[in-house]
Amino acid sequence: MILLFHSLKKIFSNLNARLLIGILLTGVLTILGISAPLITWYPPLTAMLGPPYQPPSFQHPFGTDDLGGDIYTNTIYGIRTSLIVGALSALIALIIGIIIGSVAGYYGGFLEDLLMRITDMAFIIPQFLLALIIVTILGPNIYNIILAIGVTSWPGIARMTRATTLSVKQQTFIEAAKVLGLSDIKIIFSELLPNSLPPVIPYITLQISSNILVEAGLGFLGVSDPNVPSLGMLLNNAQQHILMNVWWMSVFPGVILSLMILGFNLLGDGLIEYMNPRLRRKMY
Amino acid sequence: MTDELLKVEHLKKYFPIRKSFFKRSSLYIKAVDDVSFIMRRGEILGVVGESGSGKTTLARLILRLIKPTSGTVYFDNIDIFKLSEKEMRRLRPKMQMIFQDVTASLNPRKNVRDILAQVYKTHTSLSKKEIDQNIEKLLISVGLTPPHIFMNRYPHELSGGQRQRVNIARAIALEPELIIADEPTSALDASLKRQIVDLFKHIYEERKGKLSYIIISHDISLIYSLTQKTLVMYLGRMVEYGDTKKIIHDPKHPYTMMLISAVPIPDPDIERNRKIFIGGEPMTLESAFTGCPFYNRCPFATEKCKKETPPLVRLDDGRYVACWLYS
Fold first, then answer.
1. pLDDT tens-digit series, residues B109-121
2. Cβ separation of A186 and B106 shorter than 8 Å?
3. Cβ density class B279-298: b for 16+ within 10 Å, e for less
4. Of A272, B123, B143, B261, which one is least surrounded by beta carbons within 10 A?
5. Complex ipTM above 0.90?
């Protein structure tokens, strides 16, 4: 029993507090998002489910909005949307970033200069503004939003991948692979990336959180898919009724959004700390 | 199939020294400076020299891992620097290398099976089962038995000697004609060194006449026990080249004499009383010297050595020496 307690204690002392809270928050929110149809009892984005502007009650735990829609249902479905948009756009960013970063790092020379200057240029254009323009041009549906956020958030990952690639490239096994006659593409995918990617992984979590925030921001400005419930859209709606003292319209989606961002940030920071033993030792 | 496997002609590699970001200086590090030799099929060549004498750069040039400043390398009468990347990749199975750093030359995220299977997947169209069978045979032949245990191990789960054996297995997997071994024993202790040397000999005997080695080392005893011919390098230049026995028993160039006199003798009485013939440090490569590069350490140096670079001349016994004492 004592042994068990000690081994548990050891595991938890290695997991730092940030990582623990991060896992907890993102875990709970992900479960809520996945099980949205099971834990809500109204269809999402439906008006006239009750009288408008109702404060929280048992039928409507988060109250109702101006059209009598259930805010609880919309918020839970909104979590789902945020997670999907955040994850998929981060995936797009990851793919673009990895390709650009590892090609630049591996080949070096002129190609590296060219790719990294393009990355720098992409860095200085405000992501939010660019995403806004892209969605406006392509039309506000959920796929375009994912695409727009994805293609505007890769520069950070590209830079990071390039940096780790540069250090892995120096290792002899890359040269050994060349001696064996492997093609460059094969060397990048089977020798380089498995070694250069792990340090980038925690930063992907941070990218997800920033992408969720961008998505909510777009929704808040009214750039959202009208057929998909999202937290940004709910906040946009709440903002239009801010003077009517209906606090539940903004507080519940707002708090959930904050918790989600907080959760992913803590998870990312915690992972960075957990994967870097030097930082870990400093804590204790 | 010609008798001549490798012909190196006036090979040079200069690395420019960058002084500042914008300015390219005119100074160069002459890592390999005018090296020429011919290697016959089935020959074992030793390359000796101090650290920084350009041995590894020479190996990397022969394998076309870097491009030369000038000069050519013919492998099987093919000028390897004229081949396209694709043609070069097809030629690579014939020339393999065993790297100095036994640990860093294995991908830490792959187990032994994956490391070796990659070789077959790249150059053959064998099925998974055939590849596994080949890997088993390969592991047995380099002394990693039982093979099924080692197959699933990762490099960090192996000892230094075992890692070197995996490196050797990878190099011999495709039955190359030339294996370049860069300091194959420098990371190993004495007993392991013996085993690896024996393994090299064993592999050589097994494919006698078809396999050639270039052994790069600063370990004279290793060169003596393995090689037939020796190339002595100093600051990127060839200083002596010829039969290993002749060179080690009767060195002609002062630098070779110094190298051989510095070999430790495992007898404290002799060791205490003998003189190591020369000390000193090599000239910094950056200083753009004229004349013999060994000038500042050589006990026989004359005014001529300071001014003129000695050419490589052939002596009566068939060896080549670059020293004014002999020309």
1. 899 999 999 999 9
2. no
3. eeebeebeeebebbbbbbbb
4. B261
5. no
